[in-house]
Amino acid sequence: MRLAVIPGDGIGPEVVSEALKVLGEVAPAAEITNYDLGAARWHSTGELLPESVLGELRQHDAILLGAVGDPTVPSGILERGLLLRLRFELDHHVNLRPARLYPGVRGPLADAGEVDMVVVREGTEGPYTNNGGLLRKDTEHEVATEVSVNTAFGVRRVVADAFNRAEERPRKHLTLVHKTNVLEYAGSLWSRIVEEVSLEHPDVTVAYSHVDAATIHLVTDPSRFDVVVTDNLFGDILTDLAAAVTGGIGLAASGNLDITRRNPSMFEPVHGSAPDIAGQGLADPTAAVLSVSLLLDHLGHKEAARRIEASVAFDLATRDQASPGTTQAIGDRLAALVSSNVRSVN
Amino acid sequence: MRLAVIPGDGIGPEVVSEALKVLGEVAPAAEITNYDLGAARWHSTGELLPESVLGELRQHDAILLGAVGDPTVPSGILERGLLLRLRFELDHHVNLRPARLYPGVRGPLADAGEVDMVVVREGTEGPYTNNGGLLRKDTEHEVATEVSVNTAFGVRRVVADAFNRAEERPRKHLTLVHKTNVLEYAGSLWSRIVEEVSLEHPDVTVAYSHVDAATIHLVTDPSRFDVVVTDNLFGDILTDLAAAVTGGIGLAASGNLDITRRNPSMFEPVHGSAPDIAGQGLADPTAAVLSVSLLLDHLGHKEAARRIEASVAFDLATRDQASPGTTQAIGDRLAALVSSNVRSVN
Ligand SMILES: CC(C)[C@H](C(=O)O)[C@@H](O)C(=O)O
Ligand SMILES: CC(C)[C@H](C(=O)O)[C@@H](O)C(=O)O
Fold it and tell me: Which pathway does this polypeptide act in (chains A, B) (predicted)?
């Protein structure tokens, strides 16, 4: 297994180092190459993602990314020039974001019930296409536009993937989240494609929720969701909220997948670089470790993936929630659990 | 006071009738004209908002709307043809949505703290402009676009209003919510205008939050917010979530304001027509009653507005939360409280 690692900024390197520790327990022979992309490189060379590096990244089986973003870099530069560029260049059309409330974890809701959902967020279209502009900038007549671009090709592959995932889950339930009552054109395309693809999946029950109502459901009745399929921006919003509801961004993993496998998929915690707590051992590496589990699952190492997830579940059920330990201590615990194979525990 | 009332669909007529009962206690001389816009009219005549009716509505001091939407009408028809058309024709650029966790009300959060915020949502621009289209519909090469349109004129008047409101509140704090790291053009316009207007309000502290992070804050630390200013779509999403966090959509009021007062402003509960519970006396009219309070406040009847809000606060603090009574019973209680002037209670 050839793995490219982009530790990135802030807490990125810290959490990635623990994630690799855990990976080492199940895949000691993995070949790992580090890429120093991020704020430091941009400051010293002005580079965000050189073509040559992109070419090298393509030669790997998968990419593990820590976090990108730094207060010393103007907002958006690293996000658009590095993170989103990777997602778009490598055609990461399925942005996979599970949200599970693990036993022992207390989220902010008084009574969340059982939450075990997965958001299939479209990753290469919508309002993320950098399609828009400024007219008459800095005058009182300025106009700023942002164009959400949605294609039948792009929507169908993501909707198909979401139905496939729903088919494999016990509840076989899929919710389309959109804002069809206002976004008439994109809403129509998404609705029609969900209807079409649903015909091939008669076992899967289908629901629809407007994005505003979906945020209400996520805090009043999150267990109603199984698989959610949605566009890039709504998915961005809903997955942060779902992460919060299931115990916080310290636990939320994600995969940016090219389902065709033409390009390496990229795995990253949903959290950002959290510069305020960087370098102090305060970051929870669990989200990064769970991202490694998604990575292994994607590459077909189902057993190793499950072993890591079970170790995380065990640790979450037994850790002192108020003081779970330093970044390194949590990493050590998870690595030990994985090596002792706690499969039977959960 | 000349008031136009659009009871609308579903629970709309029920909650409006209680809201008018309460209004009657403070403004017995109000002249009220009903307009039967909504699903029934569309079914029988095909009309959504005839020009003649729009002309009549303009002759009023304010509009009270119940709810719009019915399962027998294709999604979007009533929303776009009636509700949004009213907001756009009457230039309701400030969509004002307070969210307050009243004493005695239990929201879904285990520990919400004190929540007393107001969202100033832009109401006439953004992705709500019906600006987009379908290319090659029903082919595999279909493309659907949605254009978010943001103007300096449109953003500035809303941001200015938000700063004015922040200035009048004890905490004098304003948060811009956007997604500037991805929506480069609209994000740039909003950020620059907030910066500009902030210079005229040195007393107001200013924060920024990405919309995804803002949903996390709303469930982990909602008391951080005072005034939030944001675009039409983000405001739609955040205000539903804020309503949920503060005890639900049965309590959330809103005003669609034309700050210039060239057109009548329109007041409505944030909730929809809830056809599943319509006609059964199950709907909570509190959101509609609080919308009347916003209406009176907007028209300068500050004392009457406060009296209604205090009555609602008293009722919420003392009502049996599990069974607050029928729509009519709640309306009767609130009307009685308003008439007995409970000002001193809260
Ligand atoms: C950093 C930002 C560009 C990114 C996004 O909006 O996709 C992040 O919020 C995420 O969800 O991965
Ligand atoms: C019904 C719909 C068009 C409307 C909106 O999106 O503005 C509603 O959700 C609201 O918030 O008032």
Answer: Amino-acid biosynthesis; L-leucine biosynthesis; L-leucine from 3-methyl-2-oxobutanoate: step 3/4
